[in-house]
Write a structure and sequence with these properties.
alpha/beta; Rossmann fold; 2 domains; 4-stranded parallel β-sheet
């Protein structure tokens, strides 16, 4: 009996020692190796890719010496681009590669507009990577574009500043946001709408898949007897939505809907990621995260 007890005790000690050794290995201080992962929805329009190129250049300028990589949250975009012979990594694949390459500290910058479903999935999965043994020592996700009242005011000023110089008094501006019926963060577009209105009564926000829609804005344009409308994408890139849903010739495009009501439309095919003042907001969000690595 005593012998059996000693064997059990020895086995228990072995298990404890193994566990201690395992934790000790995980707790060993590795040489710090930082990386930035830029996470965007993505685009299937090659011309729109230049917006992402500009963001990368700005991030590298702001944080020299830190590795910068990309990930794309839309599985649809990744699949379509794959058919063109180009591989785009999902956030999970990109993080796995960074882990494999020995990076210890990763700052993920969400290039999404609102903290909606795409952002929350990104944030949740990044946290799971941070819980892996012998994985990242620290991984943090920076906030998307519209995350505070200050963000909203800065964005509104930046968008108004980038309206074409030919705009005349009485001309309206309508920003096209993506919107979502599936997430409560859709209400942020309405908050931006009111912020714009405080700065410029002829500036509006509408969405493709949320509220308000272009049909909600149309009566307001008529009431003010607007004759000309500048249509601007409120998305990181001027991709498929901007070129087709906003500025296309199809009967259900915003340009066609407004045109049927006698309004002249001028489309500005420039994504928010092409506007330096907007990119600065994303960069500031990234800087807050990187400061936690000090």
């Amino acid at each position: 009996m005593k012998r059996q007890w000693l064997m059990v005790l020895g086995l228990a000690c072995l298990i404890v020692l193994t566990a201690v050794n395992g934790f000790a290995a995980h707790g060993e201080k590795r040489q710090e190796k930082k990386a930035i992962l830029l996470a965007a929805f993505g685009t299937t329009v090659p011309e729109a890719q230049k917006a992402f190129d500009q963001v990368e250049a700005r991030v590298k300028q702001a944080f020299p010496g830190i590795e910068v990589r990309w990930a794309y949250t839309s599985s649809i975009v990744r699949a379509k681009v794959a058919k063109q012979g180009k591989v785009l990594l999902s956030p999970e694949s990109a993080l796995a590669k960074l882990m494999e390459d020995g990076y210890t500290h990763v700052a993920v910058l969400s290039l999404h507009t609102i903290p909606g479903e795409e952002f929350h999935n990104l944030n949740q999965n990044a946290r799971l990577f941070g819980q892996m043994l012998d994985g990242f020592e620290k991984i943090l996700v920076a906030r998307p574009l519209l995350s505070s009242r200050e963000d909203m005011e800065r964005v509104a000023k930046a968008m108004l500043k980038n309206i074409p110089a030919g705009r005349k008094p009485g001309d309206a501006v309508v920003l096209m946001g993506h919107g979502t019926e599936k997430h409560p963060s859709d209400a942020i577009y309405l908050a931006l709408y009111h912020t714009l209105q405080e700065m410029d009564p002829n500036a509006y926000t509408a969405t493709v898949e949320g509220y308000p829609t272009i049909k909600d804005i149309l009566p307001k344009l008529k009431e003010k007897k607007v004759k000309k409308v500048y249509l601007m994408p409120f998305m990181a890139v001027a991709g498929d939505h901007a070129r087709n849903d906003m500025a296309g010739d199809e009967p259900d495009s915003w340009k066609s809907i407004l045109g049927k009501e006698g309004l002249t439309c001028e489309a500005v095919l420039k994504g928010t990621a092409e506007i330096p003042e907007v990119v600065d907001i994303w960069v500031d969000h990234l800087r807050l995260v990187l400061d936690h690595f000090q």
